[in-house]
Automatic annotation (TrEMBL):
Source taxonomy: Eukaryota, Metazoa, Spiralia, Lophotrochozoa, Mollusca
Domain Ig-like: residue ranges: 1-64, 73-162, 170-256, 268-357, 371-446
Keyword terms, alphabetized: Immunoglobulin domain
Cellular component, GO, one term: axon
Protein name, entry field: Hemicentin-1-like isoform X2
Record organism: Octopus vulgaris (Common octopus)
PROSITE patterns linked to this entry: IG_LIKE (PS50835)
GO biological process: axon guidance; dendrite self-avoidance; homophilic cell adhesion via plasma membrane adhesion molecules
């Protein structure tokens, strides 16, 4: 088709009024159709017609819109006597016929229920699930959750089952708080406590071994209905302390373990002045992290900080590792460990309080070293013999070049080159004559410099 006369028209279910210039628009760059904030009514068959006045082509695409699941009906709270049968009903619906029927799973106290037909039965009726608990006991008391899944959405609803003995029972703790609960200032935190008992227990708390009045907290602290669980809506540092839950009825008292409510924090580094560490290649080195005090314990690692302010992680190896105090250990420093524009920095992160602090930057500088060597020795010999001069050295980084000079000239510039055999660190002179008395110089180097030494060859004998 002629591109200059080409016209693109979109329609839905043969209705050309699909474009509303607000939510459904045609992209002027590539003529694609853009639908913002998709609704269920947007589902349908879309067609794209391209025409130039002489001919046209047409293409189709179907849009399927999946609706979210709704729990209908939701399970209701139940109060049952011991020995009765409890039934929870939960239904899941969706407005889209394109979605598989929702699958319903039941759980109790945040764990999936193990179906045992002698005790618990689940009946599915269309999209409704009926959970039956036969002959309930006190152990069946708790919060039951209906979870509906269809591969797109997951929704849930829950209900509480309370079991009465028909007789009497002193309180028994069902849910104890952990020994420590961290909190971030002004972010809600929960300290759990729940007990069974007949009559139903009432709850009191102690803080730091003194009676704690939950009602006197200006609605910033509350308890979950029918439980002792404390909810701190906007906790402050003053709320930190040790707490203990007590469940009471007319037949006894049950108490929880002591829980410490602790303010989460990360002590920031105070000394962040850069420090340059000078070290010889091959030496070992320890960079101190001085791991900051943190609750809960901080995660610590090391990064490279560049002078432009950016950070880069690096992998620990058998040669560069971190010890149990978070210090960075170099078992064998290499020149490549030194960076001109980057420093090693210890970084501590408290994931709970979402705080990070960085220690002082360590700039690592390796000391340049010239080669060390075995110098060639002067030799006195006779006409007709051959001699070998040895020039060997070591350095870090390794020696990059050996150079030999004869009477001040490079060996490859010497007139009679056939008399010399060069094998890296060795120079052999063959078939000596009186004219071969000479000065020999060895020069070895690496990137940090070079060293040289002279040796003399004296040839004697009959002319």
């Amino acid at each position: 088709m002629e591109a200059d006369n080409l016209r693109i028209v979109w329609s839905k279910d043969d209705d050309v009024t699909v474009i509303d210039e607000k939510r459904i628009i045609q992209n002027p760059k590539d003529n694609s159709l853009i639908i913002r904030s998709v609704k269920e009514t947007d589902a349908g068959l879309y067609s794209c017609v391209a025409t130039n006045g002489l001919d046209f082509i047409k293409a189709f695409a179907r849009l399927k819109v999946r609706a979210k699941i709704r729990i209908e009906p939701s399970p209701s709270n139940l109060v049952m006597k011991k020995g009765e049968d409890a039934q929870f009903m939960c239904g899941a619906t969706t407005d889209s016929i394109e979605v598989n029927n929702p699958h319903i799973i039941w759980g109790k106290d945040l764990e999936v229920i193990d179906i045992n037909e002698d005790i618990i039965e689940v009946n599915m009726m269309s999209q409704t699930s009926l959970l039956i608990i036969w002959n309930v006991t006190r152990n069946d008391a708790g919060r039951y959750m209906c979870l509906a899944i269809n591969g797109l959405d997951i929704v849930n609803a829950s209900a509480l089952l309370t079991v009465k003995d028909g007789g009497t029972q002193p309180p028994v703790m069902l849910i104890n708080p952990p020994t420590q609960v961290p909190f971030k200032e002004l972010e809600a935190v929960v300290v759990p406590c729940k007990a069974s008992g007949e009559p139903q227990p009432t709850y009191t708390w102690k803080k730091d071994k003194r009676d704690f009045n939950v009602a006197g907290s200006d609605d910033l602290i509350s308890t979950v209905p029918n439980e002792g669980t404390l909810v701190f809506e906007r906790p402050k540092k003053k709320d930190a302390g040790t707490y203990q839950c007590f469940a009471n009825n007319s037949y006894g008292v049950a108490m929880s373990g002591i829980v410490e409510l602790r303010h989460a924090f990360l002590m920031p580094y105070t000394n962040q002045e850069p420090e340059t560490i000078t070290v010889l290649p091959g030496a070992s080195l320890v960079l101190l992290c001085n791991k900051p005090i943190s609750y809960p314990e901080a995660n610590v690692t090391w990064v490279l900080k560049h002078k432009d302010g950016s950070f880069k992680a690096f992998d620990f190896t058998e040669r560069i590792l971190m010890d149990h105090q978070a210090n960075l250990i170099f078992t064998n420093v290499l020149e490549e460990d030194s960076y001109r524009d980057a420093a090693y920095v210890c970084v501590a992160t408290n994931k709970f309080s979402r705080e990070t602090t960085r220690g002082k930057p360590f700039y690592l500088k390796t000391i340049p070293t010239k080669p060390e060597w075995t110098k060639p020795k002067s030799i006195v010999t006779s006409v007709g013999s051959s001699v070998t001069f040895i020039c060997n050295g070591t350095s870090k980084p390794p020696i990059s070049k050996h150079m030999w000079y004869i009477n001040g000239k490079r060996i490859n510039e010497y007139p009679n080159k056939n008399k010399f055999i060069v094998q890296e660190t060795n120079l052999t002179v063959i078939n000596l004559t009186h004219q071969d008395s000479m000065t020999i110089q060895c020069n070895i180097s690496n990137i940090h410099g070079y060293i040289f030494a002279d040796a003399f060859l004296h040839v004697f004998g009959e002319y």
